């Protein structure tokens, strides 16, 4: 998966993460949310009532950016820096992750 949304794409990256099964270059220190947005992933969670959700506050308050990271659900993408090899799961269109739905 290519980063298409960066204003200035990284010249090189020695770091990758896996987003929904696809390897994505990342920059050490950037947030998981930044990496998701860099590949155009804006709808990343699904709330009660099957409502799609994307990042809203960007500062850890709204919980609209929760994803599963390395098998652990409900991680706020805007609050965590990427780590090499991190496995990030968003809620795909039409999909559902029950434990993410438990949040407000
Ligand atoms: S965008 Fe609000 S908690 Fe992450």
- CATH class, named Alpha Beta
Structural class category: mainly beta
**What is the count of β-strands?**
7
Tell me the span between the first and last alpha carbons: 31 Å
Q: Count of DSSP helices?
A: 2
Kindly give the count of domains. 1
Strand content: 25-35%
Could you give the order of the helices and strands?
EEHEEEEEH
Indicate the low-confidence ranges by residue numbers: none
Largest beta sheet: what is the strand line-up? 2-1-7-5-6
The general outline is globular
Provide the list of bound ligands, each named once.
FE2/S2 (inorganic) cluster
| CATH architecture label | Roll
* Quaternary organisation of the protein chains: single chain
Largest sheet: 5 strands, mixed
- Radius of gyration (CA) equals 13 Å
The overall pLDDT, averaged over residues, is: 86
Describe the structure.
The protein is mostly beta strands. The protein has one domain (15-100): Ubiquitin-like (UB roll) (Roll), CATH 3.10.20. Helix content is 11%, strand content 27%. The protein is built from 2 helices and 7 strands, in the order ββαβββββα. The protein has helices at residues 32-38, 98-101, and strands spanning 15-19, 22-26, 45-47, 51-53, 66-69, 72-76, 87-89. A 5-stranded mixed β-sheet has the order 2-1-7-5-6, covered by helices on one side. Strands 3-4 form a two-stranded antiparallel sheet. Strand 1 (15-19) and strand 2 form a beta hairpin. The mean pLDDT is 86. The structure holds FE2/S2 (inorganic) cluster.
